[in-house]
Amino acid sequence: MNKRILFLSLAIFALLFQFAVGQEPTMPQFPSRMIWNGAKHCAFTDVIQFKGKLYCTFRESSVGHIPGKKTGEGDGVVRVLCSPDGEKWESVALLQRKTFDLRDAKLSETPDGRLMVLMGGSIYVDQKLVGRIMQVSFSDENGQNFSDPANVEIDPAIRSDVDWLWRVTWCEPHGRRGQGCVSEQADYGATHFQSGTDLVGHDGVGYGVIYQPTSPDWKIFLVKTTDGVHYQNVTQLDVPGLPNEATVRFAPNGEMQILVRREGSDRGAYFGTAKAPFTDWTFVNCGTSLGGPNFIYLPDGRVLAGGRVNGKTGIGFLEKDGHFKLYSILPSAGDNSYPGFTIRDGKVYVTYYSSHEGNTAIFLSVIPLEELK
Q1: In angstroms, rounded to a whole number, what is the distance separating the alpha carbons of residues 364 and 351?
Q2: Mean pLDDT to the nearest integer, 78-92
């Protein structure tokens, strides 16, 4: 047999073998470690830096995704962990509200220097969803004491019984690059957002996407807030195919960008871009389904994104044309995904949940920037 043909045959065999045993061929492998498994089901993470410490939040349940019949008695609470270095973690808050199943907690730092925990609030009766009211909690200035969850107020022009505001990104004068806020190097002096009689700059305004899973097709709206409690409609986003979970970030050039999960048709996530006042959007199909989508900007300007990819927690890059290129699969299997990202001391801290070691638990992967080639 020709040596070239033999070599190619062996290479193809090796690739097929890797797929057969569940390995990802030629992908960098990054270790992770469990940081919390205090309940039967721990899931839906986020992570942020605040006052020199790392904070991680997630949902805990004694049952699983769907609460048991005794809702409000242990099902669907939100925990907040804190760590000075990413090694040792301790609980600083356990947020709960009777009759509510709290989940999908997301962290952000408000312009007045507090941590905000945004949570989905699902109301179940006999394991049937009967309504949703988003919930929010705020820390003190030290990130130690958190307020009880309280109702989020949605613009009456778009409010429904199933509103789900998945994440809020704030703009600040000296925003933290990578967390999605405005870069202090950018010039936004002439950029303003107008809504009725309201005329404010980007600074101090938070943006997020509400999705409403109602028939015949799900709707999503870009909304804004100045206090984290009250949200005004900016525009409805024209994304087909059952759009839902979405992360909003600001690019270094000031453009707003959104990564949207889709459940219909090909299920490929959509990536959108718009300039102020953020009402004229251009979306492209990323070519990959991303469950629990999230993304940040690396110091070199590249966009690191992640979510559930083919049943596992994957991270990769959004290329200039919006296409998602998978880079690595983190140790995960079964029930998993919903990564949180933050950059600290030349490393990307990635939190996510997975059931590959038994009950669903919270994991952390710390990836040096130089390894994200």
Answers
A1: 5
A2: 97
Residues 11/16/18/19 CA torsion (nearest 10 deg)? 150
Both tokens of 57, joined, read 């939040």
- Which has the closest alpha carbon to 334: 69, 65, 67, 86? 65
The domains of the chain are located at 27-371
Residues in the chain: 373
CA distance 293 to 261: 6
Q: DSSP letters of 91-135?
A: EEEEE--TTEEEEEEEEEE-TTS-EEEEEEEEEEETTEEEEE--E
Q: How far apart are CA 85 and CA 364, in angstroms?
A: 12
- Per-residue model confidence (pLDDT) at position 72: 59
Mean pLDDT of the chain: 87
**Closest-CA residue to 306 (of 354, 254, 355, 266):** 354
The 10s digit of each residue's pLDDT in 331-349 is 999 999 999 999 999 999 9
Q: Does domain 27-371 have CATH number 2.30.30.100?
A: no
Minimal CA–CA distance to 364: which of 139, 26, 22, 37? 37
At 328, give phi and psi (nearest 5°): -155, 150
- pLDDT value for 17: 41
Rounded to the nearest 5°, which phi and psi values hold at 136? -145, 145
The secondary element (H helix, E strand) that includes residue 325 is strand 324-329
Q: How far is residue 107's CA from residue 119's CA, in Å, rounded to a whole number?
A: 9
